[in-house]
Amino acid sequence: RKDKQESHLWYTRTMRVAALTAKNPVISILALDQAPALAEQLQLDLTLLDNQQSLDRLLRLIYEELAHLVSGVLFDPIYSFPLMALPHARGGTLIRLEQYRELPPEKLPELFPDFRLEEIRNNYALAKLKLSYNPQEAAALEKKQMLAEIQDYCRILEIDFLLELEIFPLEPVKNPNQAW
Length: 180
Hints:
Structural class: alpha/beta
């Protein structure tokens, strides 16, 4: 009886990283959170409604073709968010926290102002943040504090938090083949 009851409640487990490994121990994530970069590569001006609709159709096509092959799908709160309403083989769902702006790596990431962790929880998703970091940078303490606050609040909301950490050098690398 318990197994049958749990199978009907599969969506309640998606706020945990374990939802990404429900079918397979390998985590594979379809990243649909890069819509503005995709539009730029396709030379789509997103201020035009036709281009927005073309991007929406492309994201939907990618989702429909690939979502069943992965253990999780990463959405953004603006462009790919509507795709969350479509079924995707009971995999995990992640939602991006940071905005699209290209910032210097030493800057704090800017979070979406009108999309909070509560919305992520209400959509049975995990929170995901990309952070550029160097332990010797001036903003290292601020970034660690930001991460601690996000992690603590995720713990309170009982959702998992995925960090995409990008380590960057403080000095430009003169020879890219040279090891650190």
